[in-house]
Amino acid sequence: MAKVVVDAMAMQRALTRITYEIIEHNKGIDGLVILGIKTRGIYLAQRIADRLKQLENATVPVGELDVTRYRDDIEHDAIENDPKVTVSKIDFPVTDKKVILVDDVLYTGRTIRAAMSAIMDLGRPKQINLAVLVDRGHRELPIRADFVGKNIPSSQHERIKVSVSEIDGHDSVEIIER
Amino acid sequence: MAQRFLILEDGSAYPGIGFGAGATTTGEVVFNTSMLGYQEIVTNQIYHNQIIVFSQPIIGSIGISHDSYESILPTAKGMVVRDVTDISKNRQRSLSLDQFLKQHNIPGISGIDTRHLIRQLQQTGTIKGSIVDVADDHAFDQLHATVLTNQQVAQVATPRPYPNPNQGYNVVVIDFGLKHGILRQLSKRDCNVTVLPWDATAQDVINLDPDGVLLSTGPGSPLDLPESVLDMIRTIEERIPLFAIGLGHELFALANGSEVKKLKLAHHGANHPIRTIITNEIIYATEGQEYVVDPDSVDRDRLITTYVDLVDGSIQGLRHRDYPAFSVQFFPDGAPGPNDSVDLFDEFMETMGTRE
Amino acid sequence: MDNAIQKILIIGGGPTEIGHETELDAACVQVIQAFKKQGIRPLLIDNNPFSSALESVQPTNMFIQAVTADNVQRIIEKEHPDAILPTVGGVLAISVIQELQENGVLADNNVQTLGIPGNAIMDINNPDRLNSVLKHVGVPIIASETVGTLDEAVNVAASIGYPVIVKPIAPRIDTNRILCESEAELISAVTRGFSWSRFKQCVIEQSIVGYKEVELVSVRDAMGTQVLIAGLENIDPIGIHSGDSMVVTPTLTLSNAEYQELRDTAFAINNQFNFTGVVHTHFALQTNPENFYVTKVTPYNDRGTSLAACATGYPIAYVAANLYLNQRLTEVRLPDIYHFKQTALLEPSLDHVVVRIPIWPFEDVPNADQHLGTVMKSVGSTIGIGRSTEEAILKAIRSSQFSPKDELPSMSDLSDSQIISQLIHPRSSRILVLLEALRRGYQVDELTELTKIDPFYFVILQHILDVRENVQSHPLDPLALKQGRYYGFGDGMIARMWQVDIDTVRSIGRGNNILPTYKGIEPSAGELLKSPTGYYSTFEFENESEQLSDHTVLVLGRGGNQLGPNASADYFTAEMLKQLHKSGYETVIMNTNPNAGSLTSMLTDKQIIDPVQLGDIMNVINMEHPVRIFVPGNRHFLTRELRRRKFPVSVLPPDQEGRSELLTDHATIGLDLFVTEHHVVPILASDLRSDEGIATTLAQITLMRAPASVNPQQLSQLLDHANEYLASHKRTGMVQLLYTTNGSQPPVFVGVRPTRLTTIAFLNKVTGINWVRMLVRQALGEIDEDLIAKLDIDIRSDRRSQMRGTFPFKQLQLPDQLGLTTQEVGARISFGTLDPEPDE
Lengths: 178, 356, 840
Hints:
A: alpha/beta, three-stranded antiparallel sheet, 28% strand, C: Dna Ligase, domain 1, D-amino Acid Aminotransferase, Chain A, domain 1, EC 2.4.2.9 (chain A), transcription regulation (chain A)
């Protein structure tokens, strides 16, 4: 059973609000860079950057982060042999930048921890903020998001499925009973 | 019905047939190009002290309906139409537009070449006019002598606070002459609403500890309201999520250092494309404005322009850079008009949701 | 813009028929124009001889073939178009594209479908699939089930409960719904439905008869920007096909809340299907309790979109063409006459009312069942535009009645029981029956109950009767005239009421300053577009239309489509207008057919949508002072009256009735010629046949075939005779000499008649010479006799060509019968290998 909890319109709105909150929080977009976490975080990051461009008429760099190698819950041997694991694509320095880290769902916090490790390996940002489309609770690490599209309290028996039109053909967030 | 006249300040007189009340009235003559919703339009308090010319020629064809009031006691000064139908369709078959206008002492005049009048108003700009029985010198003298009040808000806004209880977010609505569409949208989202008079202070608002504050639509010029209103807005926007519509939007702009100017010709209609800047989407919404935010005056360090009318280039939305406070010139509640922007109310809910 | 698209194959609509007349071709012309402007090469397949669109593509891009999947496939494989356009060819084009999609031809040849994405093509024509998509969008849907056998049908209907509606799946014709009150009716409907369905399947659904029918027309670009162009309100309820219903725009009896809900729903559906271009969405509304259903989604040009375009002045087909190319609505640039540059983005706001009244063919097909139901029977329609509902209704009625003197027929002969019966079981000319019922004292509530028509319209009709009563009881009174004209009564009607001639009425008007004022038809309600090209008249304060020029030609249209030569007449008129422009004239067209190609704004300098009746024409003449007036040949009264008043009148399209000289009523060979002062140009000799073989009367001749079955010697004899005959019987223009043959005996001359309009269209296609333009030049005195002498026409050509009339019998649910010329609804042409007879 799948239940749509965020439809296309609501997802657009959430990204719009997050964009405004980023401007509010950072007093503008100076020194801002956006890193999307693979896979859907990248598209969300791009959409936020597009919105910032519309509003401020300035381009905010967007990078792609693949954190698989940094995760503490996957065997490293498995990663080495998995062709799907790619490297991150970040062609700008992060040192002294304000990094907005973007992911679709915030759950245990382990992805974010891995992402922070990955960023720290690249340089020393001035600050890191976290933007997520969905916060579903059940954190295993002391991590919280600065910008949240929607809080969806969920049980661990449920799965949260985020679809983005760029790869899924439509925008939605669904709760799926396992 | 008897012959009556619409006379204008520029000396012109339009003979027509009276309907509604037989009163002689004077007001600013504005036109509306919406194709539906004459009841919503005539009951909207933004038309306080105004005579409304309808471009849609067929008025009255669905009578008066219980769910189309934008205020209970309308205070428009007249309806000017090409053709009016006297029909009642409510359950009692008892309330036609004609009867409704009689009850509220609003005169109407039909048989007017409204297309001509609208083309004419574009030359003259917004102009004073009267609906009279005889278009003689005396009538014109009276028209010229009449000074319209600039206290419109005080005349139509609620003098006393009142609640509209529900289970959801605690929202304070500041009433500058609010249209019911706003309350309807808040009700639909379960908001626990308290409506405060237009001159409520920031302390009055804070005492109610709201999750959000909504500055309503209303008639007249934002420049005629006292500075204390702007002080209230400046205090509130720093602390509580704020959503402002229509006159509320103009006040929000003023409170944040922008200037507002009077349009040569008021604009009322729902057919202009409006660009949503952040997404580049085009939406349609009812616009009803006599004033507009001067784009050159907008302090870009404080405000972001969020919506622009693609026909006249007017600013249709603003947002504060530092606070969760945003405003739109148009009416996102429709009533009448498209629902394309109704999710601004959802945006307001979600904004309240993220600030605990 | 999508640069990958260079060549687009446009699927034409085929012969006109019940369900579509000239609107598809008119839209096609605009689409071609827009494509060309974008540097795109349009290819067109159609076999409609009356297609103006075929005239606007290069001969090498023109495929005169029946619109079938096989033919389209062959063109695709030969021409390799980048894309294919199914949105100007009606249901026929949709079903062809469906087939080509199913059999993989489109994918194999890498042809992109414009306007309607592939999966949507499959969904919109299948009620079952449409319902499942609508359900996904959250739209209320009607209980329904698909059936493939009679047994299933009977069971499903029993479980839903009668009355039920039967809809064929993927129909080949525009059938819509069939209402069944009983099992017997169901069996007959399902049997018919199976035969119309490409899959031999039908959907059985709960009946919503009596609901209010509302249609919305919108446009959408690939980015998802949408503009609502118009709401069309059917005055008649569901149960009468929308093509047979009186329709009004803008909607007059919907609340804002109802309307916005429909708008939101239409937009959501468009988004779900990802349509681009124009979409026509049909709804059924229940007023108590408030509830609505989506009944049909047609994402292509049709009579609804052409009405919306005509009513608003928004150039829908032209804009849609740009949207098919993935332009955004913000980028669409319209022709110069739309001087407000964001016109494509304006949601039209109207300050007038438009009423459309259908025209039924029952006079020409007397054995058809005249009851109106869920299967469309009308063949055309006319519109009236006014500043009041009364005015719009009256103008539409006046145009729909084809009364030479502009008088309305009386229904006073009907008995009371006939009235009741017709109120419950509506027939053609329904509006006149409604008026008669009111006149006899039926109450509004009663009539609403019987007819399910909104009471508002009865209030309006009652007002029309009141005005009529007042005008009638005040003969020669200027105030009465003013009131009558203000509410749409024609001068002819008023003259009849007062028992005077029309000049008396008009002189009272002039003497008392009761003069027509022309109002612009444009989408901004006077706010943004100041000098449109379309106008209608009313009697108000301000007149916006000025004399166009001192060299204006006024062309009178034929009005609403009827059976007989009408579709060809519109083609003829459109070609006339092109020639008049070429000859340096400014042109004004008067017409009332919203589907007419001749009414599109790009063909003329000014369009006037008013009844083509004497009083209204004189009003236009007084304004424009035309140097010449073209009157259609069927309007004898008008021609006479205008000539009597010394106006410079030419008769074109030519008179089809007069000037025939016949020895017998039987002919087998026709020889068409163009005759000028000094030359006789033989164009084509052809066999004349009925639909079933030898024609025993001229009225049965609905098929022409060339080359004629004559030997070379006989052909020479024909030509000699023609020259001889025309030398002694002076005529000019296009004539057809008629003969009979017997073996190799010399042909026997049986008479002469004006070349039929349908034939002229055929001759244009056969010879590649535009004979309409020749006739116009002749009327203008511009014929260059030297050029005529040099015309190179191979009268002995053995190229095979055929034109064959089509008839509406099937849609009228009549058994096959021999069609007459007066019953032709359209025609199809073929060249080279002749199309086999369609198996129907």
